[in-house]
Amino acid sequence: MTAAEHDHITRVKSLPCSVCNAAPYSDAHEINQGQWFTSIPLCVDCHTGSKNGIHGRKIMWKIMKKDELSCLDETIRKLFYTR
């Protein structure tokens, strides 16, 4: 991980969860492994939870009508265009 990637991930983790809006600090989920700049902030439950997590049954994702691309769009907006 480069210094720039590390800085980006630190900023992503400071955001609330992209799915349920749980307060920071979040995990950083890489949409594609090793592509750090396409990471999204997820709480532990929406990331790795067996019921709600993206690596589980994705129940909260379905309820909130979210997918990785919509979460990435929101992450970019929050990081670069919300002041």
Written description of the protein model:
The mean pLDDT is 94. The protein starts with a helix and ends with a helix. The chain is built from four helices and two strands, in the order H-E-E-H-H-H. The chain has 83 residues and is mostly helical. Strands 1-2 form a two-stranded antiparallel sheet. Strand 1 and strand 2 (39-42) form a beta hairpin. Helices cover 41% and strands 10% of the residues. The radius of gyration is 12 Å and the shape is globular.
Write the SSE topology.
Blueprint: H1 3-13, E1 27-30, E2 39-42, H2 44-48, H3 59-63, H4 68-80
Antiparallel strand pairs: 1-2
Mean pLDDT: 94
Order of helix and strand elements from N to C terminus: HEEHHH
Low-confidence stretches: none
Query: Into which percentage range does the β-strand content fall?
Result: 5-15%
Structure, briefly:
By secondary structure, the protein is mostly helical. The protein is built from 4 helices and 2 strands.
What descriptors fit this protein?
10% strand, mainly alpha, 83 residues, single chain
